[in-house]
Every structure is written in structure tokens, then in C-alpha cells.
Amino acid sequence: MSGERRYQWGLIAWTTLLLEAVTWAAMLVGWWLLDREVPSFRFERPWALWAMLAMPPVVLIHLFDVARRNRALARFAAVATRARMIPGLSTSLALGRFIAWRHGLGLVIIALAGPQTSGRVEEVKAEGIDLVVAIDVSNSMACEDLRPSRMEVARRTVDRLVDRMQGDRLGMVVFAGEAYVQLPITTDRSAAKLFLNNVGMHSVSTQGTAIGAAIDMALRSFDIESATGKAIIVITDGENHEDDALGAARRAASEGVVIHTVGMGTPQGGPIPLRRNDKVSGFRKDRQGNTVVTRLDEEMLRRIAGEGNGTYVRANEAGTAITQLVEEIKGMDRSTFEGTYRFTAHEDRFQWPLGLGLLLILLSLALPERLSPVDTFEPIVS
Questions:
Q1: What is the rounded distance in angstroms from the CA atom of residue 16 to the CA atom of residue 13?
Q2: How far apart are CA 377 and CA 371, in angstroms?
Q3: pLDDT, tens digit (0-9, with 9 covering 90-100), for 146-188
Q4: Which residues, other chains included, contact 337 with Cβ-Cβ below 8 Å and sequence gap of 6+?
Q5: What is the Cα–Cα distance from 243 to 175, expressed in whole angstroms?
Q6: Residues contacting 382, CB < 8 A, separation 6+
Q7: CA distance 125 to 139
């Protein structure tokens, strides 16, 4: 076909389709390996990858265009005339230009999706206090007198606290009828957020609101001999306390630990919804068949904070109630922690696919459309 000064459509089609299949196979295998071997890898904007589905139609459009140009060349002139009028027509250059452009565009799309990996781990010295957050996970925390629910507002509150920590060490205790350590005291804020996402009414099977047990469990998490400032934040609706919460607060205060409380809910309260498939199917009832109404017990939470030399605040739906407590915590005695670690959440890696993609696109634009006439001159035999 080259002697006829037409593109070798079969060569272009088979080569392009083969490379397209290999490219998709390589992407799927690469994604599987990254997901398996590099758990920290992610795309910041994964929705941008949907643009990759446009690549196969683009390939087909290109092949149809090459076939159309071949038909146009056949109608343009006789073979001998085309050799003189269209010198240098090259199947290889046409194929190379398109392949470079197509794969360059694919790499740019990958770059736009924002590939990221976990950041560096650096050993640093941090200065702060030891803080344990005790989170109520009893059934009453499903009440929706705070939107979307007390439990969700509690998570938002702790999430804001983690964001505002500067060098402090944080631990987490969850409690209902019993108390358990959810996260030992650590400086790793990414781990704190990971554990926070798993906190819910399923975290403790025994129901109730054992605030005293939660305070005692949090107290055991501290190194009491350390001179570091220590505080406990109890996040609860305060209802149905089943043990001596005031006595536990006094014991903590005698050890130099400050107890703050955050009230979840409203004094008016509300019913506890029962959900099925994320839809409310009814409300929790007592043994007599009456709908249970759960209310915030502010008086009890104020007394606990008073016994623990701390402060009581009521939560709001935006999760910003913690701000006041953070300011008080900053005023506590702070110590330097040796051998602590700072984690950069994620680092962008879009530079490599973007740079390579732009290079391929520029290469496709720089490649000539035809070979030099001097290299392709063929005498025409009359």
C-alpha cells in the first residue's frame, strides 16, 4: 500500500487495537497491584478516571478516519500521480503520532485524578498533654434531637478535636454498660481518625451508661507518675448512669487529672429510632410498650465536671462545642515527648504522569506528517 501512496490501514488498525488492549490490561493489573501492595495509594479525585472510558471510542474514530482518508486518496488521483503529488506519506509516522497523543492524553487524565501515597514518617519531638476522650456508644446516642444523630455529632466533635491537637497525645475509650479502650494514647492523628470512624453503637454490647467505669478506664490509660498534664473528656448524654460517676471524677482529680464533659442532646430529648436498611422502622419501647424518650442530663454532667475540676459544655450540630475545651487544655502543663512521630497525611504524585503525558503530547505534535521527499523519492516510470 505504501507504493500506492496510501496508509496501510490493516497495520494501523491491528497495532492500535493491540496496544489499546495491552494498555487497559496494564492499567487493571497496576491498579490491582497498587491496591494490594501499596494500601496507602489512592486517587484524590477518582471520578476523573471515568474520562478514560472515552479512549476506546477515540481509537475507533481514529481508525475510521484513516480508512476515510485512504478512500479519499484513492479517488484523488492515479497511483503514479499520487506518488509525485503526495511524497513521503508514512504509515509509521501516522501511527506513531496517534499512539503518542492517545497515551499522553491518558496519562494527563490519570494526573488529573490526583494519585497520592502516604507521606513521610518523621521522628520529631512533640510538646503537649495526655488526653483521653471517653465516648458514649449506648443506644440513646442514636437519638436525633441533634441532627443527624447524637452519635454522628459526637464523632464530628472528636474529629475537630483531633484536627486542633498540636503535639498532644490522644487516647479513646468507648462505653455503654461497660467501658473499653478503643485507642491507646498516641500522637498518631491518622490512627485516631481511623479508629474514630469505627466508633458506634455496635462497639459495646452491654447497654447502659457507665460513666464512672469510663473515667476509671481512661485513668488507667495514663502514666500517673509523668509530669505531663492529663485530661479526660467525657462525651455523653449523661442519662441512666449506672455507677458512681461522681466518685470516679473525684478519684481522677486526686491524681491530677482534669475531667471535662460534653453534653450530647437536648433537655427536651427525643425517641430512639430503630432503623432497617437506613430507614426508620419504628422507635425503641420499654417493657410496657411505651416509646422511650431520652433526655440530656445536664445537671449530672455539670456535677461530674465540677468534681473533676473541669468544664461542662453542650454539643452543637456543627461539632464546634469542643473549641472552648481546647482553649482550656492549651493552658495545662505541657511536656516534651521523645521519639514521637509526625505523619504527613498524603503526598501528591501527579507530577510524573502529568510530565510524561505532556511530553508524549508534545512529541505527537513534533512528529512530521510525512517523511522528507528526498528520502522517499521514487522515479515515476512512464
A1: 5
A2: 10
A3: 989 999 999 999 988 888 877 788 999 999 989 999 999 988 8
A4: 125, 126, 127, 128, 167, 169, 187
A5: 12
A6: none
A7: 40
